[in-house]
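Need the bound structure for carba-nicotinamide-adenine-dinucleotide, inputs here:
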Amino acid sequence: MDKIEQLRKIIENSSSIVFFGGAGVSTESHIPDFRSDTGLYKRKYPYLAEQMLSHSFYVKHPKEFFDFYFNEMIYEDAVPNKAHLALTKLEKQGKLKAIVTQNIDGLHQKAGSVNVLELHGSVMRNYCTQCKKSFTLDETIQLRDKDGIPRCDNDQAIIKPDVVLYEEGLDQHIIYEAVNAISHADTLIVGGTSLVVYPAAGLIQYFQGKNLVLINKESTPMDSQATLVIHDSIGKVLDEAVK
Ligand code: CNA
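Answer from helper R.:
Posting the output first, comments after.
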């Protein structure tokens, strides 16, 4: 039996699937990931990407932070790909109970998925750091000042995207929901993630079910623990496996 067929059988025999994903889920929507050869970490900037996406950098160098953020992290015209759409289909069939994602691009919701737990927040939500007024992504882009820093139209304070930067903590409620979903799943499908960013990657240790499936172009630290490992495009694999 080939691997897609094996995945099809696993899905058929599962009733409570959770998907755990990362940036590789959106590369087929033309949003670069971090660690692939074509990823953001390979691009030349005066600072390392990890440094530019840290809380202290955002505080000390807001102009450079937002320059990097709007140029490299925002893809307003991106549309869901086959991976997002297959997961939406699986949720509609009642088999997929939750998507736990490290992504911040909002594409699972754009595809129509409902129970999406965003561990690292979303570029779609933005808040004034002073009066807490909320802004859409479009509004945030429109409200950039001459230095490219988005400013609240009430009080001119900086508008901060609701994304978790390095050095910032994760939302405990989202963590709780993710652990709850993962620990009750009979199948966990992990895809498009290098599994090196913590604490997010550690959440898959809560899985106690039968089938751990890994779909990733490159090998990951969890390959040896998986029931099924597929090193291929996640869009192609999920599209073929979800009928
Ligand atoms: P990563 O470390 O860049 O790893 C991505 C992994 O996906 C790599 O192992 C790739 O081999 C693999 N991959 C890439 N394309 C595909 C594909 N089409 N099919 C299968 N596998 C593929 O990204 P992680 O998500 O593991 O790291 C976590 C970071 C990345 C989170 O904090 C995210 O917020 C952040 N990020 C998010 C986005 C987004 O929202 N789209 C984009 C870039 C980075």
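Comments: Residues 195 and 221 are 7 Å apart (CA to CA). The longest strand covers residues 121-128.
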